[in-house]
Design a protein that fits this description.
Length: 430
């Protein structure tokens, strides 16, 4: 009788082991785990242990934890290839019943392959292709970088480099942009567009040649030169913008303390070489903390902005106006050329400017965003002049600060000039 005959009774394996060998023929022993996995045990597993099978989450077959249940050399079960999470979710969603709960979509981080970026504009592709063919020596890039850092004329230097190192039928010219919002024709290899000097949001104009008819044969080189020139001018403009942000006060728009402390020593070196005077005015707003506490910081910010506006109105265009603290300000006066009048004196002229500014502050009505600010404001300041009062920037600032403290001790609303007559205020309260 065959061992696979379904009518042969199942006998526990312990009972089979107790029978003599001649009586074991035709008996089908059962393992303790038979029926749990749905598979019938084979006769060679008669010596298996009683370990219970384990299951993985989402699997319908047990993991073989007993080495006797599966031979190391036995082949693995053949099955369909593993599917991706997205395909499994889509298949589950299409086969589920209408009243079954919805299947959650795979999370975004489960996508191992990023989505391809949209292709760039064909005009940019053609411009980059032309720019790669532009043959300029490395010394041109160094000269451009030096010009940008020195704050020179980048347009003139860049056009001169293009003119020197490339062959042109005429003189290169950069025409200013007439309409920034005008649409630029899309270039094609058969009909290239005009050499527009544009880099992202920056539009600098159109690059042309003094001989347009002869320049038709150099269209690709002209487009390449325009692309390179646009990148250079955009870099210079971004550098100037970052430099302005690092050197100016965000609230008032005046120069900040960093720029002031860097500018004064360089200016004194130039003054010593060219023999001209430099005067520094340091002043602050009297009792400014009281106004901030009483009317709020918004009113204080409005006062600081108005102080800078008035100060620029009273000073000259070449004078340096800076905010060096919360309510502390500085002005640097200098005259590089000779005196405009034979009898004029530099410190006395600066003192008259400081006196006029002090009177304007004392008489000015102040307003905030929500209405007028009651009361009056005043300033107290000190003046010090190079080379009479000090020889270095540190000494000059120390003398001006000492005069500022002396103005406070004289009753405020005073500007004091250092010098032989330092015992008396240079301007009396209004």
């Amino acid at each position: 009788m065959s061992t696979t005959d379904p009518f042969i009774p199942f006998v526990p394996i312990k009972s089979v082991l107790r029978l003599p060998p001649e009586k074991r023929k035709g008996i089908r022993p059962t393992l303790p785990t038979a029926g749990l996995s749905g598979d019938e045990p084979s006769p060679q597993h008669s010596g298996a242990s009683k370990a219970m099978p384990t299951f993985r989450a989402g699997e319908m077959e047990p993991i073989e934890t007993d080495p006797l249940r599966r031979h190391p050399m036995s082949p693995a079960k053949a099955g369909p290839p593993p599917e991706s999470a997205a395909a499994t979710a889509a298949a589950a969603g299409s086969s589920r019943a209408p009243d079954s709960p919805p299947v959650a979509a795979p999370p975004a981080w489960a996508k191992l392959t990023p989505e391809p970026a949209p292709p760039p504009d064909s005009a940019d592709l053609i411009a980059r292709k032309y720019a790669r063919n532009l043959k300029l020596p490395a010394s041109c890039q160094i000269q451009i970088a030096e010009t940008i850092l020195a704050g020179g004329d980048v347009v003139a230097v860049a056009l001169d480099l293009l003119q020197q190192h490339l062959t042109w039928p005429g003189q290169l010219q950069l025409a200013p942009p007439t309409d920034v919002t005008a649409a630029v024709p899309e270039p094609t290899p058969e009909a290239p567009a005009p050499a527009t000097v544009r880099f992202e949001q920056y539009h600098f104009g159109t690059l042309g040649c003094s001989n347009p008819s002869a320049a038709a044969s150099n269209t690709e080189q002209l487009l390449a030169a325009a692309t390179w020139l646009a990148a250079v001018l955009a870099l210079a403009q971004q550098y100037q913008h970052l430099l302005l942000l690092s050197n100016t006060d965000e609230l008032s728009g005046a120069y900040n303390r960093r720029y002031f402390l860097e500018k004064v020593p360089r200016l004194l070196v130039k003054a010593r070489q060219e023999r001209f005077c430099v005067t520094i005015l340091l002043f602050d707003i009297d009792d400014f903390k009281k106004y901030n506490d009483q009317f709020g910081h918004a009113a204080g910010d409005a006062i600081i902005r108005e102080i800078i506006r008035m100060l620029r109105h009273c000073t000259r265009s070449r004078d340096l106006v800076a905010r060096i603290g919360g309510d502390e300000f500085a002005v640097v006066f200098w005259d590089e050329g000779p005196a405009r009048h034979p009898d004029s004196q530099h410190p006395r002229n600066v003192l008259s400017i400081a006196q006029r500014f002090r009177k304007e502050v004392a008489e000015h009505p102040w307003n905030a965003e929500d209405g007028p600010i009651p009361g009056r404001l005043s300033i107290s300041g000190g003046l010090a002049t190079f080379p009479w009062d000090a020889r270095t920037a540190e000494e000059l600032l120390a003398v001006a600060d000492a005069e500022l403290l002396r103005a406070k001790s004289l009753g405020k609303n005073v500007v004091v000039l250092a010098g032989p007559g330092a015992g008396q205020p240079a301007s009396s309260p209004a």
